[in-house]
Write a structure and sequence with these properties.
This protein has about 290 residues and is an alpha+beta fold. The chain is built from 4 helices and 11 strands, in the order H-E-E-E-E-E-E-E-E-H-E-H-E-H-E. It folds into 2 domains: about 150 residues, 60s Ribosomal Protein L30, Chain: A, CATH 3.30.1330.60; about 80 residues, SH3 type barrels (Roll), CATH 2.30.30. Strand 9, helix 3 and strand 10 form a beta-alpha-beta unit. The longest helix has 23 residues.
Length: about 290
């Protein structure tokens, strides 16, 4: 277990799945405030990908492993925007999981949920095409009639052109990701982690956009796999509780999931790698 320094210095060689390509490769650019950066420019030339529900009564859940919690039942043909793809990001597969934006609720917020690839059809992003400029007609502007000599000799006054409307700064969509690390065998937040969360939440609230959080807990491979899965969940729940109690984030806007030791960010064969794997990844969506 992740409970003694002896286990930390002597990593167990139990049956561990060889590190798979991390499903937590940065889905977006490295975030501002050590890992939080808006991605408004990422969608300047194309819209987000979408999925279309292929079965009537398809259920969307707050986490991939949720058995009974259902946050929406989608009808056949419902189209949902994709924030993140868990699985093959380059091809649609039935085993993929899609983290999608749900339709707006009565309060104007857009919660997020998970839907499995075998229940949807993938719709790639549509490239935006700038309209072609109108072709020149080659016709010269007609000459203006000269003023008659018997009219009063007054200077022609050009009509005042309307002033351009002032530009309004538009905040880019706050879709981003950040990572918090944990001490060996611990699930409580450090002061450094609390500071990162406070800075990130302040930036998100300044954007005046409703947000949702997907919190993913991880552990290194020290100890039994079942224990590491519970430890990853405890770390994710600790972040969820802090966001709700200290930053007034509605609890229904926060989903949690544990990957235990199965999605390492670095090699578990070194002390430094194991330290990186003791983490929580927070994905923020509008």
């Amino acid at each position: 277990m992740e409970s003694t320094d002896e286990l930390e210095t002597q990593p167990m060689s139990h049956a561990h799945v060889s590190p798979q390509p991390s499903s937590l490769r940065r889905a977006f650019v490295q975030a501002l405030v050590l890992s939080l950066i808006p991605l408004g420019t990422a969608f300047a030339q194309s819209s987000r990908p979408q999925v279309r529900v292929a079965r009537d009564g398809t259920e969307l859940r707050p986490t991939q492993r949720a058995k009974s919690d259902v946050i929406m039942t989608a009808a056949l043909g419902t189209v949902l925007e994709v924030i993140h793809i868990e699985g093959d990001r380059y091809a649609h597969r039935d085993s993929n999981w899609y983290w999608v934006l749900l339709p707006r609720d009565p309060f104007g917020a857009r919660p997020a949920g998970w839907i499995r690839g075998d229940a949807v059809e993938y719709l790639p992003p549509v490239e935006t095409v700038k309209p072609a400029p109108a072709p020149a007609t080659g016709l010269a502007e007609a000459p203006r009639p000269q003023q008659a000599r018997n009219e009063p000799n007054e200077r022609a006054v050009a009509p005042a052109l309307p002033e351009p409307a002032p530009s309004v700064a538009v905040n880019p969509p706050a879709v981003s990701e950040m990572v918090l690390n944990f001490s060996f065998g611990k699930s409580d937040l450090s002061d450094e982690a609390k500071g990162k969360l406070a800075d990130a939440v302040a930036l998100l609230k300044a954007g005046a956009q409703p947000v949702s959080f997907a919190v993913e807990g991880h552990a290194d491979w020290t100890g039994p796999e079942s224990f590491n899965e519970k430890l990853g969940l405890a770390r994710a729940e600790s972040v969820k509780r802090h966001l709700s109690e200290q930053h007034q984030i509605p609890i229904e806007k926060i989903s949690v999931v544990s990957y235990g030791e199965n999605n390492p960010a670095a090699s578990n064969a070194t002390r430094e790698g194991r330290a990186q794997n003791r983490r929580v990844v927070i994905k923020v969506g509008t």
